[in-house]
Amino acid sequence: MDAWRQPGCWLTWLGVLIGGLAVVLMRDNTVRELAFTLLMFAALASSLNIMMGYTGYVNFGHIVFFGLGGYTGFYLISQRGWSVYSAALVGGLAAAALAGLLGSAILRLRGAYFALATIGINEAARAFVNNFTPFGGPTGMFVNFSEYAQYGGAAQALWLTYAALLAVTLMTLVLSGMVRHSRFGLGLMGIREDEDAAVVMGVSAPRFKTAAYALSALAPGMVGTLFFFKNGNVEPGDAFRLQMSIEMLVMVMLGGQGTVLGPVLGAVTYERLRGFLLTSPLFKNLHLAFAGLALLLIVLFVPTGVVGWLRARFPRLRRLLA
Amino acid sequence: MILGVRNVTKRFGGLQALTDVTFELPGGQILGLLGPNGAGKTTLFNVINGVYAPEAGHITFRGKEITGWPPYRVAQSGLARTHQVVRPLNELTVRENVMVGACFGRERHSLASAAHVAEDVLNRVGLSERSRQITGSLNVAQKKRLELARALAARPHLLLLDEVLAGLNPTEIALMVDTIRRIRDDGVTILMIEHVMQAVMSVSDRVLVLDYGILIAEGRPQEVANNPKVVEAYLGNPAMAQKLLADEAG
Question: How far apart, in whole angstroms, are the C-alpha atoms of residue A199 and residue B70?
Answer without folding.
Answer: 8
